Amino acid sequence: MNNPSEQEKEFMDYLASIISLPIGPSLVMVFYEEDPEGFKSDMRAYFDRLARELEEENRDRP
Fold first, then answer.
1. Is the CB of residue 32 less than 8 Å from the CB of residue 19?
2. Where are the transmembrane segments (predicted)?
3. 3-class DSSP state for residue 15?
4. Could you give the CA distance from residue 29 to residue 32 in angstroms, rounded to a whole number?
5. Which residues, 6+ apart, have CB-to-CB distance to 12 below 8 Å?
6. Among residues 13, 19, 28, 60, which is most buried (max CB within 10 A)?
7. DSSP H helical segments within 20-61, as ranges?
8. Is 11 exposed, middle or buried (0-12, 13-18, 19+ CB in 10 A)?
9. What is the domain count for the chain?
10. pLDDT tens digits for the chain (62 residues)?
């Protein structure tokens, strides 16, 4: 298992803080280490969906 860089650790801490689930950075690291590309893809899809929802919400406002 590779040791994550300081930048990767900070990124995982950031993700854990914005996902707003009661999970810690270490759990996020487990998902990342199991499948880094899949994890990145899942996060990209999550944020794309969130952006679409926010755009729709803002479009509906007067």
1. no
2. 12-32
3. helix
4. 5
5. 4, 25, 28, 29, 32
6. 28
7. 25-34, 36-60
8. middle
9. 1
10. 467 688 777 887 777 777 666 666 666 677 777 787 888 888 888 888 888 988 888 887 76
